[in-house]
Write a structure and sequence with these properties.
Elements lengths: L2 E7 L9 H15 L3 E7 L1 H6 L1 H6 L13 H18 L4 E4 L12 E5 L3 H4 L6 H17 L2 E4 L2 H11 L6 E3 L12 H10 L6 E5 L8 H11 L6 E5 L14 H11 L5 E5 L3 H10 L2 E4 L8 H8 L4 E4 L4 H5 L4 E3 L4 H13 L1 H19 L3 H13 L1
Parallel strand pairs: 1-2, 1-3, 3-4, 4-5, 5-6, 7-8, 7-10, 8-9, 10-11, 11-12
Length: about 375
Amino acid sequence: MTLTVGINLLWLVPGVVGGSENYATGLLEPLIARDDVLVVAFGLPDFVRQYPELAAAAHTVVPPMPSGRHVVRRVLVENAWLPRHLRSQRVDLVHHLGGIVPPRSRVPAVVTLHDLQYLAYPAYFSSVKRRYLAATQARSLTRAARVMAVSEFTRAQAIEAFDLDADKVTVVPPVVRPLPTVSPARRIVLLRDLGLRGEFIVYPAAMYPHKNHGVLLKAFAEVVKSHDVTLVLTGSVGAGAWGSAHSTKAEIAELATRLGIERRLRIPGYVTTEQLAALYAGAAMLTFPSRFEGFGIPVVEAMAAGCPVVVADATALPDLVGDAGILIDPDDVAGWARVISSLLTDDVKRRELVAAGRARAASLAAVDPVQHLVEVYRQAVA
């Protein structure tokens, strides 16, 4: 039997919502390709403009909204416009990929939970966002027929925080998509365009407080005392999503100047997938000191590309990496400096990490989240 599934993407503002955008688009592509599911997506005009082919394949229905964030209007559309159109499209089920189930939904619903960072670090969110999540999160998870978490860490946190039935919550990880292959000659060109020559370290992360750039900069200031190396920080400047914490871009720049390492720093912002592939392939290592991650897609991308990874021993990252990377307390400046310096001169250890990382990434890529997703859909409908 073919299921008609509505996909709520009304929360997805491209370039603003972070890793949840990659998660959603990564699941949507193979889901559309299946012959046992008919997808009807509900997305913003900006989603259609950013992903025209994907939006067309998903039979995307667009609400009467202008481009831009328009948070209040989007919430109203999700609560009033969406329920009516779910009925008119005659969907069997609606999947809310943004973590919230609108209260007026009369169609069986499943919801994806990316993380519960606001419970662990409430100061990183505005008071309005905290109140909104406090009023909607628990009811959404209770209202949903099934809850899908992106990692075992997020699943366990949700069950404990909201006293959920463990059988109702299942893990559906992201689809692990390989980055494009970049030839050595092309890599040199791409890295040169980013102002990179010689040895470098990469940290791809939006500039938010929980990404913990300050600890990395302080450790890096110790590393450059004895190593000729550059630190590359990619990702958005932060403060894009409604109610999120302030951007730490100014703090990062000020700290780099105070530490005297501004000339050793490159901050290209968003990079293309080809540039990111070149960075992973050319970097001495990926450093990832984030204090809070629901999953950690950049870490998997780096391991798959043969880049050694050094990550924070926190939240979802230890389970994600296993024994394929080095784990450090996210706030141990001396520990980060010591490990980075050691790896820069230990080619044998780096080769061991490369091999272990490739194997770990391959095992993660072997999982078919979409097959599991469809099984959850059928359970929810039943």
